[in-house]
Design goal:
Blueprint lengths: L16 H13 L4 E4 L10 H8 L5 E6 L4 H10 L4 E5 L5 H8 L4 H13 L3 E8 L8 H10 L3 E6 L16 H9 L5 E2 L9 E4 L6 E5 L14 E2 L4 E3 L8 E2 L1 H5 L5 H9 L26 H4 L2
Parallel strand pairs: 1-2, 2-3, 3-4, 4-5, 5-8
Antiparallel strand pairs: 6-7, 7-8, 9-10, 10-11
Helix pairs in contact: 1-2
InterPro entries: Aldolase_TIM (IPR013785), MoaA_twitch (IPR010505), MoCo_biosynth_MoaA/MoaC (IPR050105), rSAM (IPR007197), rSAM_sf (IPR058240)
GO molecular function, one term: GTP binding
Pfam families: Mob_synth_C, Radical_SAM
């Protein structure tokens, strides 16, 4: 949670369930085959169930990223909506550190919900943002988690966004992560699917696997096919894009938005939204023009 008091977007500015469905249907008509609900926290919306039920009517693979706090309450909705893959954001396996990072005492609830999801047959991906000096020493603990549990752990390099106190010294690179893991475990490379943003690995014989999302040190922009639609109906063609296109306004006015979507697809920058170079060590995060991560979705 943000350290400061967070001001939520007024309800009239947010897409409503029928608008989400209508805009999503246009993306599907243009070739989109997968939709993932993210946040912020998508399950805090009172109409979250309705949104999932609506999207389930489209011919797409539907997924969700959540902090896991309310995942147990929504398991029937996940099942009814055809959601089989649940991404859970969890940066630590230590309850005290969890409170330090989130300002909430929900670690045991989140951990137990993950176990319940696995037991119910969901494919669970745990997203861990690795920050030097904070949680990088826990990487082996997350690897051990995959020994008996069919969980996929994804180690994510710390990325710069508004308000997240990013500094290049906090970036613990993919190469460092892999080196730390290989000090204790044998590792085999797994086959990545087309357009995957992560690089997959496994300890031989373990039930689960792990992956690296190396945005800062090994960007995957040349194969990225993601588009992001914010809760207030703005389209971003990259997490780091300084620009966004309003789809909700024209949609509410009854205007076509296909051309706006196509222009954004064609306008994707060569790398990292055109704002970040590979020498990220010299980046001043305060100079980036962007939203906070919780208002982008990821």
């Amino acid at each position: 949670m943000p350290e400061e008091d967070y001001h939520f977007t007024p309800l009239p500015q947010l897409m409503q369930p029928d608008e989400i469905l209508g805009i999503a249907a246009i993306f599907v008509r243009m070739g989109v085959k997968k939709i993932r609900l993210t946040g912020g926290e998508p399950l805090v919306r009172k109409d979250a169930a309705k949104i999932m039920e609506n999207l389930a009517t489209l011919p797409v693979t539907l997924g969700i990223t959540t902090n896991g706090i309310r995942a147990d309450e929504f398991m029937p909705v996940f099942t009814a909506s055809g959601i089989r893959t649940i991404n859970i954001s969890l940066d630590t396996l230590d309850a005290g550190k969890f409170h330090l990072l989130t300002r909430r005492n929900y670690f045991h609830r989140v951990y137990n919900n993950i176990q319940s999801l696995i037991a119910a047959g969901f494919h669970v991906k745990v997203n861990m943002v690795v920050m030097r000096g904070i949680n990088e020493k826990e990487i082996p603990d997350f690897i051990r988690w995959t020994e008996k549990q069919p969980v996929s752990v994804r180690f994510i390099e710390f990325m710069p966004f508004s308000g997240n106190h990013w500094h290049h010294d906090k970036v613990f690179s993919m190469d460092e992560m892999l080196g730390l893991i290989q000090q204790e475990f044998p590792v085999e490379r797994l086959q990545d699917a087309l357009h995957d943003t992560d690089k997959k690995f496994q300890v031989p014989g373990y039930a689960g696997n792990f992956a690296m999302i190396s945005t800062m040190t090994h960007p995957f922009c040349d194969t990225c096919n993601r588009m992001r639609l914010t809760a207030d109906g703005k389209l971003k063609n990259c997490l780091f894009s300084r620009t966004e296109t309003d789809l909700l306004g024209p949609y509410r006015a009854g205007e076509p938005i296909d051309n706006l979507i196509l222009a954004n697809i064609m306008g994707k920058a060569k790398a990292l939204g055109g704002q970040i170079n590979t020498d990220y060590e010299h980046l001043d995060a305060d100079t980036l023009a962007n939203r906070s991560m919780i208002t982008i979705g990821g």
